[in-house]
Each structure stands twice: as structure tokens, then as C-alpha cells.
Design a protein that fits this description.
Keywords: ATP-binding, Nucleotide-binding
CATH topology of the largest domain: Rossmann fold
Shape: globular
Structural class: alpha/beta
CATH class of the largest domain: Alpha Beta
Pfam families: AAA_3, AAA_lid_2
Distance between the termini: 31 Å
Strand content: 15-25%
CATH architecture of the largest domain: 3-Layer(aba) Sandwich
Largest sheet: 5 strands, parallel
Helix content: 40-55%
Number of strands: 11
Strand order of the largest sheet: 2-5-8-1-9
Order of helices and strands: HHEHEHEEEHEEEHEHHHHEHHEHH
Number of domains: 2
GO molecular function: ATP binding; ATP hydrolysis activity
Domain AAA+ ATPase: 45-189
Number of helices: 14
Protein name: ATPase
Length: 330
């Protein structure tokens, strides 16, 4: 790509556009710069996001802002225990035309959009969760034996509230793997919270502007796939992922505390993610720093601790930090 002036020019233009997107979102969502960057990396990579955070930290506002700034058709579904699969993917109804002839007509559900916010996804039943996760994976839905393609691009940003877990249905590990990233939304810093107070409680609320279109986003996702990844970065990704598996790891804490590690989908996510992050940082090729920055949100939901780790109070974040330090920094 470095030898192709047109491709380089296109990447530079994309970097400038994404910098503008980042600034526009940052002007609405205060104190969550890393969350915004990780969400943009996921969307540029064509993936879905699981947002973990307490109530009131701006998760819903983030999704709405991203939809506006990226020019995507955005919808929101509040997941509840009584929500049925047909409520989100759509269903067939018996219709009658002017001649009295009856036929089935498919009525699209809220899944037929480009950016879907699945609010508190763990409150829905496993059956409803599976319907959404199948749509995420296949980019289409199946109703009454007929397939219906979803709009492109199609991204799901799902949220989970770590409080009030009674009456919830945790996502199975195999389904968690379908999310590109798990992003932790933390409390903002003091200065950021001051900015929130000053801007959101008056009459001068900033309204986000559209920076790009869905067609431009699809073009950007295609362009990113052509970015070359150096051999050292590929080896770093392979080493990191394989050392996270207790069966193949040479690290004692992984062998002792990890029940199961990340699969090949984690390697694929890292390969796509480092390409997107290098563009966001106005570079033409990924580096090992990109792997280090994306390791935690990409691996966090693809690994599980065993009983020994829980008994000893070992956290998954600590394991991943050790994994990064001993495989990529050392």
C-alpha cells in the first residue's frame, strides 16, 4: 500500500475524517476518550460492542451520538424478560388485500437498522438473546423459513448493567465471543464531570453533526482490510493469544488460573483492530503498541478464570496485564 499513492492518499483522508468524528463525539461525551476510541475501532473493523458500565455514564448517549455523527440509521431496544424474538427481528402477519385475498406479510423489527442499541441485553431470555446474536453473526434474520438481509453496515452496541443481577440471563461464553470488544465505561474524572455539569444542565446543549455517511463507512471498512500488517505485529498477536490459552501457555499464572482462553476469533479481532487504531492515530501501518492497547477489551470476554483463581481473588484484568507484560513488553 505504501507504494500506491492513491491508497495512501485515501488513508490520509480517512484519518482526517475519523479525527473529526472523534472530536465531534468527544464534544458530546465528556471524559470517555478511551471508550470513544475503542467504539470507533470496533465499528471501523465491522464489529459489535458490549458496553459494561453503571447507570448514568452516557452509554445510551454515546450510541445515539455515534449514529448521528457516522450517518447511521440508529434504533434502541430496551431488553426485558418478556421480550420475544419477533419483537426485535420482526414477524409475519396475516394480511388481506383489496380483493379479499389473504397472504402473509413480513413486518420488520427494530433490528433492521444500521446501529442498534440493545439496552441491558442480559435481561432478555436466552431465546431472544440467541435471535439477536444470530442476526449479529449472519447479518440476516430467518422468519418462517425465509431469510431477510439486514441493512449494511450493521452494528450492535449492547449494554450490561453490573448492578441488579437478580433476574438476569448472563450471556453464554460462546455468544460473548461474537462481540468484537467488551468496553468498560468508568466514572469520568473530576474536570470531565465539571464539564458535564456545565454543559448538560443549561440551554446550550451541543447537538452532534453528521460527519460521514453509511456508504463512506462501508468504504472505510473495505479500505482498512488492505492495510498491511508487519510480521512482527502478526507474531505479537499470535503469541499473545496462544499464551492466553492454558493448553499452550508457558506462563504459570495462565496455566494455574485460566479455565479457557481466547480462540482464533480473538486473533482475527486483533488483526482488524490494530488496522483501525493505526488509522485513528494517523499512521499508515499498525505497531505492537496497537496490540497492547487493544488486548484487554478484545481478550477480556474471551477468557474465563477457574475456581482456584476466584478462591485466591485473582482478577482477569490482572492476568491480562501479566500476559501483555511478559509476552509483548518483555
Amino acid at each position: 500500500m505504501k507504494d500506491d499513492p492513491k491508497a495512501v492518499q485515501a488513508l490520509e483522508a480517512l484519518s482526517k475524517q475519523m479525527a473529526t468524528v472523534h472530536r465531534e463525539v468527544n464534544a458530546i461525551i465528556f471524559g470517555q476518550d478511551q471508550v470513544i476510541e475503542e467504539a470507533l475501532v470496533s465499528i471501523l473493523s465491522g464489529g459489535h460492542v458490549l458496553l459494561i458500565g453503571l447507570p448514568g455514564l452516557g452509554k445510551t448517549r454515546l450510541v445515539e451520538t455515534l449514529g448521528t455523527v457516522l450517518g447511521l440509521d440508529e434504533r434502541r431496544v430496551q431488553f426485558t424478560p418478556d421480550l420475544m424474538p419477533g419483537d426485535i427481528i420482526g414477524s409475519e402477519i396475516l394480511d388481506e388485500d383489496d380483493n379479499g385475498k389473504r397472504h402473509f406479510r413480513f413486518v420488520k423489527g427494530p433490528t433492521f437498522c444500521q446501529l442498534l442499541m440493545a439496552d441491558e441485553i442480559n435481561r432478555a431470555s436466552p431465546r431472544t438473546q440467541s435471535a439477536l446474536l444470530q442476526a449479529m453473526q449472519e447479518k440476516r434474520v430467518s422468519v418462517a423459513g425465509h431469510y431477510h438481509d439486514l441493512p449494511q453496515p450493521f452494528h450492535v452496541l449492547a449494554t450490561q448493567n453490573p448492578l441488579e443481577q437478580e433476574g438476569t440471563y448472563p450471556l453464554p461464553e460462546a455468544q460473548l465471543d461474537r462481540f468484537f470488544m467488551e468496553i468498560n465505561v468508568q466514572y469520568p474524572e473530576r474536570d470531565a464531570e465539571r464539564a458535564i455539569l456545565m454543559t448538560t444542565t443549561g440551554n446550550d446543549n451541543k447537538i452532534p453533526k453528521r460527519i460521514c455517511s453509511s456508504a463512506e463507512l462501508l468504504q472505510a471498512q473495505s479500505l482498512l482490510r488492505d492495510i498491511p500488517v508487519g510480521e512482527s505485529v502478526v507474531e505479537a498477536i499470535l503469541t499473545l493469544v496462544r499464551e492466553g490459552r492454558p493448553e499452550t501457555s508457558t506462563l504459570n499464572d495462565v496455566q494455574k488460573h485460566v479455565a479457557w482462553g481466547p480462540g482464533p476469533r480473538a486473533s482475527q479481532a486483533l488483526m482488524s483492530g490494530v488496522r483501525a487504531r493505526c488509522v485513528l492515530h494517523n499512521r499508515l501501518c499498525p505497531s505492537i503498541d496497537d496490540v497492547i492497547a487493544l488486548a484487554s477489551p478484545i481478550l477480556r470476554h474471551r477468557m474465563a478464570l477457574n475456581f482456584a483463581a476466584r478462591a485466591e481473588g485473582v482478577s482477569l484484568d490482572t492476568i491480562i496485564e501479566h500476559l501483555i507484560t511478559r509476552t509483548l513488553n518483555g
